[in-house]
Amino acid sequence: MADVKKTPSVLDAASQRVLRGAFTMGLGFIALLVGSIFAGYLHQRIGYRLEGTSYLFRWVVSRLLQRSWVLGVLPLAAYGVARIVPVRPWTTGIGAALTGEVLLGMLNILSTGGEMTGVDAVTTVVTLAGGVVLTAFAVKRGVAAAAAVAEQKLRAAEAKKSEYDVFAREAQRLADRNAGEAPKAEAPSPESNKPPTS
Q1: Of 87, 151, 175, 180, which residue is the least packed, with the fewest Cβ within 10 Å?
Q2: 47-86, pLDDT tens digit by residue?
Q3: 78 within 8 A of 84, measured Cβ to Cβ
């Protein structure tokens, strides 16, 4: 009976999409959480040093810190994940960035009523697009790095296999040579089988 290859069912494909979507959303949430903690800590460390600078410079630094989750943390996290799990660059970048942005928007609505100036809105859109591009690029780099590591391991395994093959051939050659040089037992001569004559 011929073997019938099992084709993935619609349910399996749907479950894979759901898992991938949940993973992408989780990545965006973690990036937002870690980025917010990092931005708050860094703002406390350098805030007093910015007191003598211009308002524009302070605003730019503060805005970059606020958006560091999508410009820095998310690409780094996506790079690390792509080296372990096969993910898609643009799907991961867009999904994770939008997840973090929606959560951040909900928090802003709860805390400030969702008020945002035009400049803040423009910088949000620009940094969001930049974060998506950086995340997609980081995923591609992570996938390439994972492929390079896998190829290196494969080459190392092939090298070990070839070394083992050479060792096995040399051992077989020595065994064959030793077997050929082994002393042969002397066969009894016909005269020794004759009965003694009186």
Answers
A1: 180
A2: 778 887 888 888 898 899 999 999 999 999 999 999 988 8
A3: no
> Is 5 within the bounds of a domain?
no
C-alpha 5/C-alpha 152 separation (Å) is 32
Question: Of the given ranges (12-16, 20-24, 30-34), which has the lowest mean pLDDT?
Answer: 12-16
- The pair of three-digit structure tokens given for residue 91, joined into one six-digit string: 């799907």
d(CA 61, CA 63): 5
Rounded distance, CA 96 to CA 139, Å?
Answer: 12
Contact yes or no for 108/66 (Cβ under 8 A): no
- Rounded to whole angstroms, the Cα distance separating 34 from 75 reads 12
Those residues with Cβ within 8 angstroms of residue 123's Cβ, 6 or more apart along the chain or in another chain? 63, 67
- How many domains does the chain divide into? 1
- The answer as to whether 158 is a domain residue is no
